[in-house]
Specification:
3 helices, 7 strands
Length: 210
């Protein structure tokens, strides 16, 4: 087969060592518990786990850590996940595997919680990307809101030499007198400061002679 004809494969996650267990049938209206799987120190199989992605989708690959021989394969559908967490631990999961149309359920366990956390993150990231690709934003979502003004922004800053006045309710009678400041004193007493608020004198120095 030509190398160019081979499908590109992306690796989303690798666990160097995982354990696989034979699990009992699920009781009605109850979730899976790793404690029901017997002696967890005696797994059915040990090997590595890879999550791979191709154009056709993603899959969980259970492989021999040395030879790469495939032990089991679980196609991952983000809309109908083949992975289920157990009720009594964050390191153990139930996986639905498929082989030639046949389905079976196996238990899977990680030695470290950090490995199970990274496993969950890898599946969540893939699910987000897939759902975003299946539901792209509609044109209406990309149009700006009608409540946001469009067009060039207006410049409301004051130009050089421009001034503005403020009207205070109830102070109209005092402001109507020419030359009167906001504090009620004449602008003539402010000297060269114009119609602004008069400056208060500094506090007397303790060394000033009376």
């Amino acid at each position: 087969m030509d190398v160019l004809d081979e499908e590109v494969e992306s690796i989303l996650y690798i666990a160097r060592e995982i354990s696989v267990y034979k699990i009992p049938h699920l009781k009605a209206n109850e979730g899976h518990r790793a404690n029901d799987w017997g002696d967890l120190a005696q797994p059915l199989w040990k090997g590595r786990l890879r999550i791979i992605e191709k154009s056709s989708g993603a899959a969980l690959m259970f492989e021999d850590a040395q030879t790469g021989e495939l032990f089991a394969r679980a196609p991952y559908d983000a809309l109908k996940p083949c992975v289920e967490s157990v009720l009594d631990s964050s390191r153990y999961f139930v996986i639905r595997v498929e082989d030639d149309g046949k389905k079976a359920y196996i238990g899977m366990g990680f030695a470290e919680r950090t490995d199970s956390f990274d496993f969950n993150v890898a599946l969540q990231d893939y699910t987000k990307r897939l759902k975003a690709a299946l539901s792209p934003p509609s044109p209406s979502e990309e149009t700006p809101s009608p409540h946001i003004p469009v067009g060039p922004k207006k410049d409301y800053s004051l130009k050089e030499g421009q001034t503005f006045s403020i009207s205070i309710p109830g102070k109209a009678s005092k402001l109507s007198t020419p030359g009167t400041s906001l504090l009620g004193s004449s602008t003539q007493s402010t000297g060269n400061f114009g119609g602004g608020v008069p400056l208060l004198p500094p506090p007397p120095s303790s060394g000033r002679k009376k």
